[in-house]
Amino acid sequence: MTSPTTGRLRVDGATLHYEVRGTGPLLLLIPGGTGGAAAYDGVADDLAADYTVASYDPRGLTRSPLDDPEAGQSVARHADDAVRLLDLLSPDAPALVAGCSSGAIVALHLLTTHPERVERVVAHEPPVVEVLPDAAEHRALLARVRDTFRREGLMPAAAVFAAGLRRPGDPVEPPAAAELPPQAAARAERTMADMSYFLGRIVPSFMAYTPDVDRLETLSDRLVLAAGADSRGELPYRPAAFLAERFGTELVHFPGGHVGLTTHPAEFGKTLRAVLSA
Q1: Got the DSSP string for 123-175?
Q2: CA–CA separation, 155 and 131 (whole Å)
Q3: Which of 52, 87, 119, 278 is buried deepest, with most CB atoms within 10 A?
Q4: Rounded mean pLDDT of 39-67?
Q5: CA nearest 191: which of 33, 6, 31, 64?
Q6: Which residues belong to any copy of the AB hydrolase-1 domain (predicted)?
Q7: Do the Cβ atoms of 197 and 61 come closer than 8 Å?
Q8: What's the CA gap between 54 and 16, in Å, rounded?
Q9: 217 Ramachandran zone, left/alpha/beta (phi>0; psi -120 to 50)
Q10: Where are the domains of the chain?
Q11: d(C-alpha 17, C-alpha 208), whole Å
Q12: Above 60 in pLDDT, residue 174?
């Protein structure tokens, strides 16, 4: 794996850690969950053969500390961070952008608010549950997660959250986790330190976010909605499928499930390359 060039960028209320590889048009990779820039380590080197590949730790994660550790979080603020990175790394040309999960929500907001900065967006399973007809059920899930977090702590709340993401009828207990490559396993261990921040402040804010669907529809020629081939029926899959049907566009299936970037990095990167060059 090639060592990236790293940098620090001051933004409003935080300092962002970012990483850059390769040359060519800018491809900004927006991480989801607690993965940070390292979430894309399995695909970044290959993509850097054709692109200047940049990723970063979103504000509040370990290497991107907040000035105020208790500051509230919003999709708009995180999208503004992405704009600042685009301005730094590609000031004169629109960029390609790809995001996974909560990072895909940021990418959607970026497209609707700064379309002049974006050539194409790939949004893999953005959990914008407010677009769904049964959104009220998912608000109730978030309330249960919040209440469990307050009463019982992080791990019980994480279990409630995970159960709410599964397909209806799936067993409450998850199947045995797939064995991850050593680097991915190490990342998973490191990012556990950020789980409290993610579940306590990112999830409630981001999953309550309602995208400007009409605006997205007018920009749908620049938007690729994507989902995991193995996650059909799961909650994070459904908003991408719903929006693709509404816009009359293809829902592109990537290898694996919601975390296919981690479990199938080579195949995920190959699909992302194909989508970007289509």
Answers
A1: EES---GGGSTTHHHHHHHHHHHHHHHHHH-HHHHHHHHHHHHSPTTS-SSPP
A2: 28
A3: 52
A4: 96
A5: 33
A6: 25-153
A7: yes
A8: 12
A9: alpha
A10: 5-277
A11: 26
A12: no
